[in-house]
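Q: Given only this backbone (115 positions), what sequence would you predict?
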């Protein structure tokens, strides 16, 4: 496997790794499956996550099991957002992740409540 060189750090963006993962997945089509290495491409710029992406995806899947559809493809696990059930998992997200999903998918089911 080739060495992965992260892009230069861009200060001031302020996105957490979970926000970066969700942003990329929201920008993909409804039917697109994401492998962990899709989040490790240097050309992603500010959305680059790196090798910790597998841990973050596993944590997100554990904390919000209805948010993802998951399939095992060989030795890799691929995931996609379960957009059909967004009304179920969206309210369970913390405010920062709700804001990312709402912005990227233009999904505003109700007036935002301040946490």
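A: Predicted residues:
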């Amino acid at each position: 496997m080739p060495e992965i060189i992260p892009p230069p750090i861009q200060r001031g963006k302020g996105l957490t790794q979970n926000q970066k993962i969700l942003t990329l997945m929201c920008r993909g089509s409804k039917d697109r499956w994401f492998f962990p290495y899709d989040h490790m491409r240097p050309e992603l710029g500010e959305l680059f996550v790196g090798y910790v992406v597998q841990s973050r995806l596993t944590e997100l899947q554990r904390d919000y099991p209805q948010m993802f559809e998951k399939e095992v493809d060989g030795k890799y696990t691929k995931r996609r957002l379960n957009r059909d059930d967004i009304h179920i998992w969206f309210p369970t997200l913390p405010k920062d992740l709700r804001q990312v999903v709402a912005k990227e998918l233009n999904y505003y089911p109700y007036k935002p409540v301040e946490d």
